[in-house]
Every structure is written in C-alpha cells, then in structure tokens.
Amino acid sequence: MPAVTISDFAVLPSIERPAPTATRRPVVSVTSAPSGFEGEGFPVKRAFAGVDLRHLDPFIMMDEMGEVEYAPGEPKGTPWHPHRGFETVTYIIDGTFDHQDSHGGGGRITNGDTQWMTAGAGLLHIEAPPEELVVSGGLFHGIQLWVNLPRADKLVTPRYQDLRAGQTALLSSADGGALVRLIAGDVAGHRGPGSTHTPITMIHATVAPGARLELPWRADFNALVYVMSGRGQVGPQGTPIGAGQLAVLGRGDVVEFSATADADGRGQRGLEVMILGGRPIKEPIAWAGPFVMNTRAEVLQAFEDYQRGAFGRELPHSGASALAG
C-alpha cells in the first residue's frame, strides 16, 4: 500500500469528466518490462525497454525499484556516479533513500517524497539506504525517471528540488474511485510541485477495482501509462494491461483506463499506475551510460570532463551504501 493515501477520496478536489466529444487516446503498443538489477544489486523493472525513443521523448529511461520486502542486511543503493545532460527524478512510494551530490544537493526521501535532480552541466551523486534500514530491513518501492534536457539547457547549473510528500497535489476521479497524486505538471487546472525545464506531467494514481480514471491531456504531449500492480484496461478499446506493462498512447485529448473489477472475491487492491506525458524535444540523442547529449562528440567530452574531475568530488556520506554489499 503506498504511504501517501487517504481513506475518503470524496474530500479531495475532483477532476471533471472530459466532454464526450473529446478524443480518447488510442493504444499504440503494450510492452512488458524485463527485470534486472541496478547499483549495488537492488531489483528493478526496466519500464521503457524495447520502446522507440521517439515514442518516449522527452523521457529517456524509467526503472521501477522493487516492490521488495528486504530482510535485515539486504537493502542496497548505488555508489558515487556521474550524470550530465538530463534530470533524474526519484519518487519513493514506500521506504527510504538518502541522496547526496557533489553540487551540495541531497537529503532523505521517504514515503511519498520526490528528489528532482537537474544534472545539467554535470555532477556526481550517490543514493543509499540509511543505516537503520539496512539493519532492520523493510519495504522498499519507488520509481526513477530520466527526463531529457533540450540542447539549450544541457549544460545548465545543476539544481536539486526536495519535494515532500505533503506538497503533492491530491485529487480524485470524477467517479470517486481513484486517487491521483500529481507530482509535476498541470491536470484540469491543478498543478503539481515539481518545476521542470522540459514541460511534463507526472502522476501516480491508485484506481479501485471497477473504477475508471479519465484525465484531460495536452494535445502537444505524448502519453505513457505504466502499471506497477493490478490488472485493468487502457484506451477506448479497453486494451488489457497488467503489472509491469507500459502502454504507449497515440494522439488525443484524454487518457483513460480502468481497474478490473474484483469479480473473483480475492480482495485485489486495484490498479497502481504511473501516468507520464511531455512535450517532445525532437532533437538528436547521443546516449552512453550516465550521459545524455545531442552528439557523440559531446558524450566523449562528458567522459573526458568526468575523468579530469570537472564534475566535483565524492564526499563523505552518512548513508549505509558500503554496508549493503
């Protein structure tokens, strides 16, 4: 169960149902995320694997971290590593991560918090579970999203946004069956707290069994729907979708999906889903490891700058990454 929730959706501002004449976005593709490991060995699902970057633009990569119940001594993070040319967004649904970067940003993110790091010209950072979580074990679940920067902003000064769970805009669906957590962007006149270089919308929604969510969507944005748990249907044709699957949607004014009704009596918890959209940058992408630039020469320059120490230096870290191996 996500840490940020509410028992009565009816007390929240409601998203009005879009007009019947609005164009519902059709499903272009549904893909399944392969599992892998990141950093020092924490489990992830590669949500965008196999999807053409042209359909994802301005997004580059998204990993679902967990959901995993760690035993004592098992929690893991990442060692110090560089980034340049994009933004990393780490959203912790349940659990705790400590972050630190060489530009002075960082802090603890937990239970609905979001860390928004604009790497820009380049920095080093580290993400690790706190020592008490390593000792005790516990639930860990989150999302890391990479958002591309346009050519004009590739080398901006790094910036860190610490978005607390309480800042997230909470909304309900028109039928009262869905909780919408608006992290960044605008939906139906409501705004999330994240400040972005590239215009995007980022939402985490919980949809009760049998409920439906219809979201007005900017026509100049793309639209992606990723299911973290549960089963449902997406798009005007009711295309089936389930845990670990990503739907790429076509053009239109409305993103719509629903959670499968609890017809078998097993008490399923509904649909947990990430909804993303952004205005495509439509620029060349040269991507190698932790650097996302426009040309191969710029990527090679990033490696050279990193090797000569231009991204800063590793700092003493209070987290427990070293204990997690």
From TrEMBL:
CDD domains: cupin_pirin_C, cupin_pirin_N. Transmembrane segments: none annotated. Residues 203-312 form the Pirin C-terminal domain. It holds the Pfam family Pirin_C. Gene3D superfamilies: Jelly Rolls. Residues 43-147 form the Pirin N-terminal domain. Belongs to the pirin family. This is Pirin family protein. It comes from Nostocoides vanveenii.
